Q: What sequence folds into this?
């Protein structure tokens, strides 16, 4: 079915394995498969990351918040410049709006 969709890359994120590493070494938090010229998917990444995604043009990063693991995108190969979630972007925009309102009030007061 992935071939029908034209997928060139397959990412498997296992949040349980990311939080509780497999003793047998068979489960990984993050796996990336890429399609070869013959059409077969070949695994090119299997560990906790970060891992590069050619199709997304970003780095895949597992983040942990207590017992919860999440898959995030990063703009840099080291996985430090995370793309904000919708909630993070909203909060950042609200802070910037508050800052601009304060600056406007300051300028009006002159």
A:
């Amino acid at each position: 079915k992935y071939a029908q969709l034209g997928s060139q890359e397959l990412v498997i994120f296992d949040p349980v394995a990311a939080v509780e590493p497999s003793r047998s070494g068979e489960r990984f938090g993050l796996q990336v498969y890429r399609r070869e010229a013959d059409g077969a998917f070949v695994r090119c990444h299997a560990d906790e990351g970060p891992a590069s995604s050619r199709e997304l043009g970003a780095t895949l990063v597992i983040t942990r918040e207590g017992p919860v693991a999440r898959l995030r995108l990063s703009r840099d190969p080291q996985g430090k410049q995370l793309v904000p979630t919708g909630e993070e972007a909203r909060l950042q925009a609200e802070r910037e709006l508050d800052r601009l309102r304060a600056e406007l009030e300051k300028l009006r007061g002159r």
